[in-house]
Amino acid sequence: MNQSFLLIAGLEWLWTGLYHGAAMFWETLWALVLGFGISAALQVFVTKDRMTQLLGRNGLKEILLATGFGAASSSCSYAAASIGRSAFQKGAALVPALAFMFASTNLVVELGAVLWILLGWQFVLAEIVGSFVLIGMMWLLMSLVFPKELEASARDHSRIDDCDGCCHSDHRPSHDSGATPDQSQKWRQLANAFWMDWLMLWKELVAGFLIAGFLAVLVPHDWWKSLFIETGSPILRLIENAAVGPIIAVLSFVCSVGNIPLASLLWANGISFGGVISFIYADLLVIPLILIYRKYFGGRATFYIVAIFYASMVAAGIIVDLIFAAFGLIPKGDRPMSPIEHATFSWNYTTWLDFVAIAAALWFWILKTRSSRSN
Known about the structure:
Layout: H1 2-45, H2 48-55, H3 60-73, H4 77-89, H5 94-106, H6 109-118, H7 121-145, H8 148-158, H9 183-218, H10 221-225, H11 234-252, H12 260-268, H13 273-281, H14 287-297, H15 299-326, H16 349-374
Helix pairs in contact: 1-4, 1-9, 1-16, 3-5, 4-5, 4-14, 5-7, 6-7, 7-13, 7-15, 9-14, 9-16, 11-13, 11-15, 12-13, 13-15, 14-15
């Protein structure tokens, strides 16, 4: 009897974890396709000279441009990393490439909309203000800490799997020949680049969504609550909550908009205002993404990038908390119950966006297949 009960419970746990992982993937599929599509377009349609001209320096203008491009790209974390790497390959300086990644996951419209619905307008404003604080802190720390010679090494490493040097090289006319590829050839190159990114990252994506799904089933809500200080010195609580927020994000394998429901749960259970903000920013530090950074930039550069990311997130959470407290913008009184819900399949606008994304991906696959056959 006990064995049967354990077997049924185990199967139910397995099914529920797989279901929620798949549902989370379904909810973000359109954003993944869009992000990888933008990444492929950067690889194919944007020349190295143009990218270097726009984002080739670590200056204020270039960082602001990268932030604007990121806010307009509407990507999930994995796709943002892919686009940032493509921009870096094409000649963008490392700081603008990283600024693009932050903006692409934290200044997008869909994240602001979900944040407003679940947590309120104060958090939307804090997210925007804090993003600029974070990018500024990251810029400062990169200037002070990141070894100058390491950027060139990271760029060389990012080109090891460059599609320009492998899957596209067979389809792209030689620059020495003076030939200019026609539009259909450009689209075939885009399709090759699009599927190259998917094939390179599918293991990390599967691992991330499956682990997130099983964590949603296994980890009790009170466990998250036990990780941060709720009483004692206000300064200690402010620093500890802002420092623990990104760690919770790493443990929960959240991704871009998908971390807002868990943020609402943490807020309802006592984490500080700044802790919520630093938690939301940390979608770029989940373990599968860190492995992707290592593949993109190399191990040493990834160590510095991750450390600077974390320090910038914590600092941004603390600074935003202090600013909003000074202006009386932190919500007061009893905190509302969290509206968090586990990811589920439902018939809504996301379904239609996913259908469009699947159609686009299939079209790219057809173009890629035709290109391979023609060679």
